[in-house]
Amino acid sequence: MLIVGLTGGIGSGKTAASDMFKSLGANIVDADIVAREVVEPGNPAFISIIEHFGNSILQDDKYLDRAQLRQIIFAKPAEKQWLEDLLHPIIRQEIKKQLNNSNSLYTILVSPLLFETDQSNMVNRTLLIDVPSDIQLERASKRDDNSRQQIQKIIDSQLPRDVKLKKANDVICNDKDLAELEKKVKEQHAFYLRLAHEQHS
């Protein structure tokens, strides 16, 4: 089965693009959603995190306080490493399971860190939703209520744009409106259907 890895920096429009692929009939596996599901109360990863960090990491509703956890791991590299060593294999296993269970002609794996992690090894092709960094800053700060400095920090922590452009098999430049994005997604969809048919024949 053809698996396409879809990625893009914050504010690039990768969610809008993946929603469009979904409406065209492609199954979507979202690494961010998987990462949230594996740490839901009662799951083995959740139990390990509580054992390691203690109950103070919980919100009143007994779910993980993700903001607090983020602060801890950004301040302490060793804790970040511990958490990644715990979660990455579990997330990878669950992504694999969902990809294997997919029954559409081609499947899209949405991952903001496709190139930064080994998730790129799980796909046949990569599609980058690309935007110039000034548009990225503007969109993300409008959407997330974050300051431009915070957004810039997130952009700086991700792989540089030129490196992503070199690594990607396919690129959609999303610097215009949603109608233009939809047109480009439909073109890619037709291309992936052709590839998927070739794979089967």
Could you explain the architecture of this structure?
This protein has 201 residues and is an alpha/beta fold. It is built from nine helices and five strands, in the order E-H-E-H-H-H-H-E-E-H-H-H-E-H. It has helices spanning 14-23, 31-37, 44-53, 66-75, 77-100, 133-144, 148-157, 161-167, 178-200, and strands at 2-7, 27-30, 106-110, 125-130, 170-173. It has a five-stranded parallel beta sheet with strand order 2-3-1-4-5, with helices on both faces. Helix 1 packs across helix 9 (178-200), helix 4 (66-75) packs across helix 5 and helix 6 (133-144) packs across helix 7. The radius of gyration is 18 Å and the shape is globular.
Largest sheet: 5 strands, parallel
* Mean pLDDT metric: 93
Low-pLDDT runs:
none
Specify the structural class. alpha/beta
Share of helix among residues?
55-70%
Distance between the termini: 12 Å
* H and E string: EHEHHHHEEHHHEH
Secondary-structure blueprint of this entry?
Blueprint: E1 2-7, H1 14-23, E2 27-30, H2 31-37, H3 44-53, H4 66-75, H5 77-100, E3 106-110, E4 125-130, H6 133-144, H7 148-157, H8 161-167, E5 170-173, H9 178-200
Parallel strand pairs: 1-3, 1-4, 2-3, 4-5
Annotation keywords:
single chain, 9 helices, alpha/beta, five-stranded parallel beta sheet, 12% strand, 201 residues
How would you summarize what this structure contains?
This protein is of the alpha/beta class and 201 residues long.
